[in-house]
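Chain A, query sequence.
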Amino acid sequence: MTRFASTQPFRIGTARGAPTQARRAPIGHSEDCGPARSREPSPSALRWLLLFRLVLVVGLILSFSPEIIAPEITSAQADTAWWILILYSASVLLSGLGLLGRWPSARSQVHLAIYVDIIALTLLIHVAGTLVGGLHTLMALVVAVGALLMEGRLALLFAAFATLALLTERIYTDLQHPLASSNFTEAGLLGATFFAVTLLAHAIHRRIQEAETIAARRTVDLANLAQLNAFIIENLTTGVLVIDGEQRVRLINKAALTLLHAETRRKRMRLSRLAPGLATWIEREMEDPSPDGRVVQIGPRALRASLKPLDDSPAAGGLIYLRDMQELTREAQRTKLAALGTLTASIAHNIRNPLSAITHASQLLAEGQTLNADDRHLLEIIERNSARIDETVRSVLQLSSRDKLEPIAIDLSTWLPERVAELHETHRLAAVSCRLELAATPPPIEADPRHLHQILANLVENALVHGRDADQPARVTIRLTVHDGADERPVIEVRDQGRGIEARIAHEIFNPFFTTRTGGTGLGLYIARELAETNGITLEYEPILPRGSCFRLVPRQAPDLA
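Chain A, predicted structure.
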């Protein structure tokens, strides 16, 4: 088995090396339903014809050798036969030179060969008569060979020429020896035999050619199917490996190379050299197979690997599927969010409206003068949980706005102070709770201002909630600076002085529905990252030592305003 990777472009059509008969019409008809032209004999057919003629020459020479020739043949007849054989052998050798020089054309070479063979055999029949048996059979065999190489009416021409040659020989013999009894009936029967052999050979030729045509088409179909399978496997996001019984890699696609951090895919490379951890897992899997696969740690990646044996025998090898666990997790999250998306419209109508009624009713009840402490505590629970549900619905609805991108050029040095002032007013923050530092005046960026405002608001709200230290209020700093590179891209940092994020969960903070707060939805940072990626902005997290967190936004620079 060879690997499917190929540098050739994928195409559906005639496979390389496939016989050209697959593109031809059936024998006797062309694609426009008119009469088909005779097919040009292939070089291999001409080589076989040359070999047949060489064998025929050798057989005739042995038949007329002094040790085997019939004693009734006179020396004069033997000398004449030898001269005929010498000339015939020379013509066969010349035809071999013509085959090497590809001149004349293939059809002309076949015509000359068959006509020369018939003439030579006719002359030998005239010289030896019936004293050397098998000459008539050899002539029928020559006619059959011509019929196989040149289909249609040309094959009948060979039979007619051979019949005419025999009749001419009989007439000449009768004129030369009037007293000899010439058997024209035998010549006529031989001629009929030639035509019968020609028709039979032609029928066999048609069957063979039709079978070759079907086989060639099947070859093209199989080649296209193999190429299509190779294209599909190579572009799968799932890693695919095929190994033999000795754990040599027979096939590996691009996704598997990426997951295994491999740079080459040499043929029949041992899996222990390509991925030692995977080879160890396969040995354990052979002893205790798992139908759903297991998680294997390959370098920094955790992969879910599953092994499908190709046969009941371990020597047959197996098929290995590899999936990235992080990708599986992201896919599950995307599925969850897609399901939420289908409910967005229903949520907006069927939850927010009743929720507003519940909140309004609880506010009206809270204005009552006859409520005791327990009743007011219950109303506080209703209001608090109603606000939590409203926040969740609002967060989910915000996800639908990420596809509505309307980027414009934004000057952050004037845009950020306005947004920070708005945050102070919205959250009723003291001046020390949220500070803005303009450490540089970077060039404008290109982004959707609504999305950028939502990203900044989510990051500030997250810092205000998680940046508290004991009983001290949160202190958030929004800092505008530039990237350390030569492009001077602007950088927005949102810093807090809280306890920071534990290292074991730092890689999960951008996952949807992940939260460490009891009343949180776990969608704030996820929405911020999704909106950032939509606008071409990189959102990064970096811990601040000895304590604190920093979320960094690196937008792309506006190309027309830089």
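The first strand starts at residue 239 and ends at 243. The chain has a mean pLDDT of 78.
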